[in-house]
Amino acid sequence: MGGPDPAVAACRVAVRRALSDLRAQQPGTLVVACSGGADSLALLAACVFEARARDADPGWRVVGATVDHGLQEGSAEQAQRVLAQMEALGVDETFSARVRVSAAGQGPEAAAREARYAVLGEIAARTRAAAVLLGHTLDDQAETVLLGLGRGSGGRSIAGMRRELVRDGTRYLRPLLDVRRGATEAACRAQGLDFWVDPHNSDPRFLRARVRHDVLPVLERELGPGVTETLARTADSLRADMEALDELTDAALAAPGALEVASLAALPVALRRRVLRAAAVRAGALDGELFAAHVLALDELVTRWRGQRWVDLPGHLRALRREGRIEFEHAVGPGSARG
After folding, report:
1. Is 234 exposed, middle or buried (0-12, 13-18, 19+ CB in 10 A)?
2. Which residues contact 193 (CB under 8 A, 6 or more apart)?
3. At what angle do helices 181-190 and 6-20 cross, to 10 degrees?
4. Neighbouring residues of 192: CB distance < 8 A, sequence distance ≥ 6
5. Angle at Cα 113 formed by Cα 110 and Cα 116, nearest 5°?
6. Half-sphere exposure of 178 (CA within 13 A, CB side)
7. Tens of each residue's pLDDT in the chain, 339 residues
8. End-to-end CA distance of the chain
9. Tell me, what DSSP letter sits at residue 104?
10. Would you list the domain boundaries of the chain?
11. What's the rounded Cα separation, in Å, for the pair 337 and 339?
12. Which of 30, 61, 265, 267 has the maximum number of C-beta atoms within 10 A of its C-beta?
């Protein structure tokens, strides 16, 4: 008797590895974010299978969660279809939430992402989940690297999405970062799962859609096949370096007088700019909208002080040099501008 379809097996192996990283914990609850697309459906199916396949343990309790952003016609009906699919796959509990996406101070994609994380964090807290699993694939990682290159946002952006992160106290895992999007689609077809194709993923108004359908195919054609995998490997190779620098940044920020101009000026350039960026994010700047130009302007407050008044930052925030310190404050009124 043959084993599962190779694409199904690839998804299950990826989930098994992710769950093995939680082996120090007693099996508990896992929340799987599911939009009804191929990636998240394949992830959920693999998670349900692996949660039930643990011989030595009672297994994980799997919760399926879908978030309706209300940005497309028929989104409520799609959320109901996803609920039915999750129940058919055998999850222990389902959650559906409709959120209001406010794009004030950020793009619609970033706003939807923030709203989604907020809901998933609430569900994780309510169910006391060990982790929330997200269905990002190797293709998503390659696209993220290209977007980071285009924005000039530094090594952190080029390092792509983390396989694991903690955000507002919730642990998130991305088990499928080594799995191609085509494999998740094949896994769904092999298991008879009717996956949804989000029209936003092909809408040229969205930058990621243009990267997916226009930029990456050109790179594959001109540079040869395998560019997607190479970009994802680039992210992996940079991530360890970025994490080490992040640790140094956290230590520098925690030191007394961390934002004193004299202390900042004494730091190596790479570390100083990371400290300034991290300080801005902690003060309320929008992480996804904080680009290299903003960080360079912050650095000039330390190294090229010419009496400039302040630097505007995304998130209605501004940074200024005051009495030998870099400080952050909320911008007020329409007259806020870089001085």
Report:
1. middle
2. 41, 42, 45, 85, 89, 187
3. 110
4. none
5. 155
6. 13
7. 578 899 999 999 999 999 887 765 666 899 999 999 999 999 999 999 998 876 445 678 999 999 887 667 777 898 899 999 999 999 999 999 887 766 555 566 777 778 889 999 999 999 999 999 999 999 999 999 998 887 766 677 788 899 999 998 999 999 999 999 999 999 999 999 999 988 888 888 888 899 999 999 999 999 988 999 999 998 988 888 888 998 999 999 999 999 999 999 999 999 999 999 999 999 999 887 888 899 999 999 999 998 888 999 999 999 999 999 999 999 865 444 444
8. 73
9. T
10. 6-223, 255-330
11. 6
12. 30
Best CA proximity match to 299, nearest among 329, 246, 261: 261
Structure letter (DSSP) for residue 177: T
Q: 196 by DSSP, 3-state: which?
A: coil
Residue 262 CA: distances (Å) to CA of 47, 252, 259: 51, 13, 8
Decide if 292 contacts 154 (C-beta within 8 A). yes
281, 70, 91, 132: CA torsion to nearest 10:
0
Six-digit token string for 219: 């790179």
- Lookup: tokens for 305: 């002080």
Structure tokens at 239: 């991530």
Side chain identity at residue 92, one-letter code: D
- Alpha carbon distance 72, 82 (integer Å): 15
Q: What is the CATH number assigned to the segment(s) 255-330?
A: 3.30.465
